[in-house]
Write a structure and sequence with these properties.
The protein is α+β, with helices and mostly antiparallel strands. About 20% of the residues lie in helices and about 45% in strands. The protein is built from 2 helices and 7 strands; from the N terminus they run αβαββββββ. Strands 1, 2, 3, 4, 5, 6 and 7 form a 7-stranded antiparallel sheet that branches. The longest helix is centred in the first third of the chain and has 30 residues. The radius of gyration is 27 Å and the shape is elongated.
Length: about 150
C-alpha cells in the first residue's frame, strides 16, 4: 500500500512538473522579443560612375603587403523591398568584374552596406574602390542586399 502511494505521488509530481514547464513555454511566447530574421532585398537597374575628384583623391586598395592605387566608383541602383517593413543595416553583396572578366574584388562578396531600405522601391548608392590596373567597363553581377527588421546591436 505504501509503495502504491509513493508511485501515485511521484506520478502526480512528474505530471505537475510537465504541466508547469508547458505553461512557462506557452507564456514565454507572449513576452519574448521578436525574432530578427534576415530580410532579402533585390537590387536592380545597376549603374556605376567614377567618383568625383574630391571623393576619389588618393584612393588605394590593399594588395597584400603593399597598398596599390585604385579607382573609385559609385554604384547606384534601385532597391526592391517586398517585406512591407523597413530593412535596417542591409549588407550589399555582389560580384564586380573588369572588361576581361577578371574579378575586381577577389575573395570578397560583401561590398558595403545600406543603413535603411524603406518598403517598396528606392534608390541606393555605394562607393567601391577597385585596383587601377583593371580595365573598364565594369560588369556588376549577382547584386543583392540582406538586412534586419530592427537595428542590430
Amino acid at each position: 500500500m505504501i509503495n502504491q502511494m509513493k508511485s501515485t505521488t511521484m506520478s502526480f509530481r512528474a505530471k505537475f512538473a510537465c504541466l508547469c514547464l508547458a505553461f512557462a513555454l506557452f507564456m514565454s511566447s507572449f513576452i519574448s522579443p521578436p525574432a530578427l530574421a534576415v530580410t532579402q532585398v533585390e537590387l536592380k537597374d545597376l549603374t556605376y560612375a567614377e567618383c568625383s575628384p574630391e571623393v576619389g583623391k588618393g584612393t588605394v586598395t590593399s594588395g597584400g603587403p603593399i597598398m596599390r592605387l585604385a579607382n573609385c566608383f559609385i554604384i547606384s541602383g534601385t532597391t526592391v523591398n517586398k517585406s512591407g517593413k523597413p530593412v535596417m543595416d542591409a549588407d550589399v553583396f555582389g560580384r564586380i568584374f573588369d572588361a576581361n572578366n577578371n574579378p575586381a574584388m577577389e575573395n570578397r562578396g560583401r561590398l558595403g552596406s545600406i543603413e535603411m531600405i524603406e518598403p517598396g522601391e528606392g534608390q541606393f548608392e555605394l562607393r567601391v574602390s577597385v585596383p587601377d590596373a583593371l580595365e573598364t567597363p565594369l560588369k556588376l553581377e549577382q547584386f543583392k542586399a540582406s538586412g534586419f527588421a530592427a537595428k542590430v546591436r
